[in-house]
Write a structure and sequence with these properties.
The chain is mostly helical. The protein has helices at about 15-35, 50-65, 100-110, 110-125, 140-150, 160-165, 190-195, 200-215, 230-240; strands spanning about 185, 240-245. The longest helix has 23 residues, at about 15-35.
Length: about 250
């Protein structure tokens, strides 16, 4: 290679020099453009009313998704299902206000003042002839009475007194038939038969049958106490009318 020709590699023709100048000018222009044009960005407009509505909707959907399901909530029972009655703190069950003792009223959740008024009324010869008579007890609030009255089951003595008075002196008095509950086999009794027991309503009788089927029959009388909503006090009332066999229950 001729050493004198190395300068040829660093020499540009007139056309090439023009190209370099134009290219350099373009590069400089592109670099300077952001500094020459700096657009002003306006703050976006926010509709406050619309934003509040959107937040309220989102909050409502969140609470709806996180509220307890129907499975987690205790079922709403009808009369004679043993559940606590709201803010009153009552725990009602089937009872006769003419016979229930102080311990029973205490278990029900009544205040001591109301219980003493009930006992004083009875000790002075007072008698509850119908369920609504219970509302007249001093100190008993209306909302408490509204809850307890449907659970009252008064054994009628008025009819017996009238019959005894109508019987002639020379004739033997006729005994008035009292309601008799036949013994029920808890492994074969239907929901309709169980509903007839004192303190057992339509809801609780169906729940007993459903629970019996789920456990493939009761093994002892006390197993029926495990039915949701059946209190010990109601169990003690119906116990004399219950029996048990080894026969598997029918599906209803």
């Amino acid at each position: 290679m001729d050493k004198g020709n190395w300068k040829d590699y660093f020499a540009f023709s007139k056309m090439q020099r023009r190209g370099v100048i134009v290219l350099s000018s373009i590069i400089v222009l592109l670099i300077a453009l952001p500094y020459l044009f700096s657009p002003e960005f306006k703050k976006p407009f926010v509709n406050q009313e619309l934003q509040q509505q959107l937040l309220a909707m989102q909050k409502g959907e969140y609470e709806k998704e996180h509220q307890p399901s129907a499975i987690d909530q205790p079922p709403q029972d009808e009369p004679f299902a043993n559940v606590s009655s709201g803010s009153t703190g009552l725990h009602p069950f089937g009872f006769d206000p003419n016979k229930l003792d102080e311990a029973g009223f205490t278990q029900m959740g009544l205040s001591n003042a109301v219980i003493q008024n009930i006992m004083r009324y009875r000790n002075q010869g007072g008698h509850f002839n119908e369920a609504n008579d219970f509302r007249k007890i001093n100190g008993l609030q209306k909302k408490e009475a509204d809850i307890l009255v449907p659970y009252i089951n008064i054994e009628s003595t008025k009819q017996e007194t009238q019959v005894e008075k109508a019987v002639p002196v020379n004739e033997e008095p006729v005994e008035v038939a009292k309601p008799v509950f036949k013994k029920l086999d808890i492994n074969t009794a239907t929901a309709e038969e169980l509903e007839a027991l004192p303190g057992i309503g339509d809801v609780l009788s169906k729940r007993i049958v459903k629970f019996r089927n789920a456990v493939n029959g009761f093994k002892s009388l006390e197993d029926i106490k495990k039915t949701y909503g059946l209190s010990d006090s109601v169990y003690q009332v119906i116990l004399p009318y219950l029996t048990i066999s080894d026969i598997a229950p029918e599906k209803h």
